[in-house]
Write a structure and sequence with these properties.
This protein is mostly helical and 322 residues long. The chain has helices at 2-54, 60-66, 70-85, 92-114, 117-148, 150-162, 167-178, 180-194, 199-203, 213-228, 233-281, 293-317. Helix 6 packs across helix 7 (167-178) and helix 7 runs antiparallel to helix 8 (180-194). The chain is elongated and about 80 Å long. It starts with a helix and ends in a 5-residue tail after the last helix. The relative contact order is 0.06. Residues 1-41 have low confidence and may be disordered.
Length: 322
């Protein structure tokens, strides 16, 4: 009995010790894994930053030529702004070179897999359309959120000016209360004014966003108030009412054109999707177009009409309430 009791105690102590060693080993293993994951994430983050900044150097010449096209230049600028908002710096030529490399890689890969050059071309076009559409939609959403936040910005500034705060205090309070992209803009203006820049130079930050014209109006009002010393509260109140009316109109137009925009997107993408599917089912379905100059002319005419139709529909659906 006593011997069994002693053996039981010994087994319990050994089990506890073994459990402690196992727990300690697992804890160290988890910590090592966390350190490795952190190192890998930091390494990948630095690699991504380097790639975004450098791009593909051999494609820089092609990128500069493509940037002469207004649509490419606008998309590259939007993508650069989006990356800067999440802490990744880049250049427009680098981003375009990465897109060119991606499209070319997609063309090669899909051509090798499907044994159809038409499928490769269609896949490359789909990549361009999807990337461009994503950048534009993301930029439009960011701009819309910024414009929706302008009335709250004006209310914050009214509260500050009514309580007798200075322009620097008003900018800092607004940046802390609003947050997001608008908060960062006012924080930059406050930092410039805090280090000794002139009021006009500090407020010039608000004029660097043509897609948000309300910011330029606020900058002009603040500059005039600083020079003349008059009361700006009534001006800001009128501006807030005007901005809220414009935003209501913009929401109405957005709702009324949503279905038309979706139809335009489908019409833009569908020809390339059908071309890719037909090329898989019948690799030579476009061969008759390349057997004579009449066929080439018809193919070129169809492509030109597709591009003209897309551009016309986009222009008709463009909303500009600035």
């Amino acid at each position: 009995m006593a011997v069994g009791f002693i053996w039981g105690i010994g087994a319990g102590v050994l089990a506890i010790a073994a459990g402690g060693f196992i727990a300690d080993g697992l804890s160290r293993s988890v910590k090592r894994k966390q350190v490795v994951v952190s190192m890998l994430s930091d390494g990948w983050s630095s690699k991504i930053r380097m790639v975004l900044m450098r791009g593909i150097p051999p494609l820089s010449g092609i990128s500069r030529r493509l940037l002469r096209i207004e649509a490419v230049s606008g998309s590259a600028s939007r993508a650069k702004t989006m990356l800067e908002e999440v802490g990744y710096g880049s250049k427009r030529t680098s981003l375009v070179s990465l897109l060119v490399a991606t499209v070319f890689g997609s063309f090669l890969l899909t051509t090798l897999v499907s044994s159809s050059a038409v499928f490769g071309v269609a896949s490359g076009c789909i990549v361009v359309i999807c990337v461009g559409g994503y950048i534009k939609n993301r930029s439009d959403r960011t701009t819309s959120r910024m414009r929706e936040g302008i009335p709250e910005v004006i209310r914050c500034m009214q509260t500050c000016f009514k309580s007798g705060q200075s322009l620097l205090q008003t900018l800092r309070y607004t940046s802390s209360e609003i947050g997001g992209p608008l908060g960062r803009i006012f924080a930059i203006a406050a930092d410039r004014l805090g280090v000794g820049d002139t009021t006009r130079s500090a407020l010039s930050v608000l004029r660097q966003y043509p897609d948000v014209p309300e910011l330029s109006f606020v900058a002009v009002a603040l500059d005039v108030q600083h020079q003349t010393g008059g009361s700006i509260v009534p001006v800001l109140e009128s501006a807030r009412e005007s901005v809220e009316g414009e935003l209501e109109l913009m929401r109405t137009l957005r709702v009324q054109t949503a279905q038309a925009k979706l139809s335009a997107t489908i019409v833009t993408v569908m020809p390339f999707v059908l071309m890719a599917l037909f090329s898989l089912m019948s690799p030579d379905f476009l061969s008759p177009f390349f057997e004579s100059w009449q066929g080439l002319f018809m193919l070129a005419l169809a492509l030109v009409m597709q591009i003209a139709g897309v551009v016309s529909v986009r222009r008709m659906l463009r909303i500009d309430v600035s």
